[in-house]
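Task: sequence in, structure out. Protein: proline dehydrogenase.
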Amino acid sequence: MLRRVLLGVSRSPQIKKAVSSLPVSSGIVARFVAGESAAEAVLATEKLVSNGLNVTLDHLGEDTTDLAAATATADAYLELLKQLGEAGLTQNAEVSVKLSAVGQALPGDGEKIALENARTICLAARNAGTTVTLDMEDHTTTDSTLGILRELRQDFPETGAVLQAYLRRTEGDCVDLAHAGSRVRLCKGAYKEPESVAFQNKQAVDKAYVRALKVLMNGDGYPMVASHDPRLIAIAGSLADRANRSPDTYEYQMLYGIRPDEQRRLAREGNTVRVYIPYGEDWYGYLVRRLAERPANLQFFARSLISK
Ligand code: FAD
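Result:
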């Protein structure tokens, strides 16, 4: 309930302005965001990789409504991939891209522009020796994002997909995407969605997550278990064992700043673990989704605003 209210309130321009004026180095922002520049993101990557973790980097920004901003985001990824390559990190670091940040929401040719920008990023990633995963956004974009994924995979079959367990359609999408070579990140889902398309309570979402994960683990693809939920992480391990999967045939993923001890514990036990690192100037939408997930984060956040 609180999560839905917060996601609604966050659309207010006044609230956005007040929160966005926080410096990125302030407590709550720095906990979840690695910095504003590619250099800071590379530094955070180096630290995690030296602790036996892998990363996926997200240049923050979404719902771009002008062409120049979409191009600038694509360029930011090219610069990031260049810096990751120079630092020798591309074996352990890939990138995550939101299609709305590279043009998907532009009127008219948006999908075509997003596809071309994503293609440019995929090519740069491949040349650098790494991969791209397409983040999933709100349900109005799911068909478009999966359509662009299909197009991209014709040339770049290594491109990862994201499916959200809270969507009623997701079990079926898992069946479609659980084929050999298909990297699929399964998360619960972070947007405010209507009941007609999404399960609303935690128990129903958790059950849907397990059903979807069973399909992925029993399939031939590469499941990416994106959750901090201790129960789901334990279930993922059991399902992988039952499907006779070795640790190089699936991975766990968590967000930067959330349960870092658990990230290291899983890696120490021989699992593949990837941390999702967001960076960039446009961190507001991302931060609000993280705050909405956990009431305890709000107290921390309120203290940041007061001490501003
Ligand atoms: P929850 O039930 O929310 O949390 C379980 C436990 O994890 C909590 O009890 C708490 O201990 C801890 N925890 C969870 N969230 C927080 C937090 N914010 N702060 C502190 N502790 C916390 N969503 C999308 O819609 N599209 C995407 O493309 C997408 N990509 C993702 C990529 C990765 C790698 C991950 C980990 C998540 C991604 N998400 C994405 C977000 C996801 O959908 C959930 O909103 C988020 O992961 C919280 O769900 P949970 O599975 O951790 O379970």
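The first strand starts at residue 54 and ends at 59.
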